[in-house]
Amino acid sequence: MSTALIIFAKAPVAGFAKTRLIPALGAQGAAALAHKLLDHTVAHALAAGFDQVQLCVTPDANHPAFQRLASQSRRKLQLSLQGVGDLGQRMDRALTDALHYHARAILIGTDAPDLDTCTLQAAAQALVDHDAVFVPALDGGYAMVGLTRAQPDLFTDMRWSTAQVMNESRIRARRIGLRWKELDPVADVDEPSDLVHVPTGWLP
Fold this sequence. Notes:
By secondary structure, the protein is α/β, with parallel strands linked by helices. The chain has one domain (3-192): Spore Coat Polysaccharide Biosynthesis Protein SpsA, Chain A. It contains 5 helices and 7 strands. Strands 3-2-1-4-6-5-7 form a 7-stranded mixed sheet, with helices on both faces.
């Protein structure tokens, strides 16, 4: 069974990436952390051995960080654009497109440094006998979703960036009859209070 891994990422530009961390780190500091999170996520993704790893970016693929990662991966990392729409529409579209070519598709962001190679591999394994897999986030959202077929009902009209996202996803998954597995929760780094979860040495 082939598996695609999709990484959603914003260009690590000051004032655009990790804006909720600006009060603690400043615009440049928040962008620098976003850059570290991006590099860390891509490294673990490439090490996990997926059939395809796609870096799905916004607002465009021209940022030097994206170009460098694609070049260093020796074409193992494919660049694509998130396109228009709210977060749910963009996630649904990326997963649906990947599932046209692969039996399993997993989507992650770059905000959870504990989302390591072993967790990514465990998620792919979970999709062998489940319809979906999630890695819940400690803030009530989720850091990963994986599917074996398109499920637009999981993404339509969701109130993103709230503490109810994972619980609402469970309700929807149950309603549409999905068999899903949840792996151990991880911390997202979104707010200044989350900086305790940043690996040692990453912050000034």
